[in-house]
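TA notes, week 10

Several of you asked for a full example with nothing omitted. So below is the full record: structure tokens for the whole chain, then the designed sequence directly under it. When grading your own attempts, check the secondary structure regions first.
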């Protein structure tokens, strides 16, 4: 499981984030996006060698985060379960899925529409002109 996918599951958890510049941010996670940008509520922001600031909301850019400090009570065993690979969108290549054509149909720059199959270690490429 990717770290970002794990962090996306931490909505409504209270965490402490340490930034690369030494600042500590403590608050409740409202959400995490794919760039690891973290949106927090009820935030206490402690700049290095300064007094704490209290904020309603704060967004921390993902590349500024050094690490997350998670609460001890967090059920890691249930959160780390991987739901499997993400569903792929259909592209320009796909299985024909027919008894007569058990290979791949794709679009090639050099050959146009092509059908590719491998039978008895013989590669057959059929070019379909349109």
């Amino acid at each position: 499981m990717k770290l970002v996918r794990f962090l996306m599951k931490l909505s409504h958890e209270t965490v402490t984030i340490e930034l690369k510049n030494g600042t500590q941010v403590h608050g409740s996670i409202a959400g995490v996006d794919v760039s690891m940008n973290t949106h927090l509520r009820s935030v206490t922001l402690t700049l290095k060698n300064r007094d704490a600031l209290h904020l309603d909301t704060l967004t921390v850019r993902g590349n500024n985060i050094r690490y997350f400090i998670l609460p001890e009570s967090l059920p890691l065993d249930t959160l780390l379960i991987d739901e499997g690979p993400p569903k792929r969108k259909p592209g320009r290549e796909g299985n024909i899925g027919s008894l007569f054509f058990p290979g791949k149909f794709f679009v090639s720059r050099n050959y146009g529409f092509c059908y590719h199959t491998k039978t008895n270690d013989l590669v057959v490429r059929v070019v379909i002109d349109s």
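Residues 94-101 have pLDDT under 50 and may be disordered. Use that as a sanity check on your answer.
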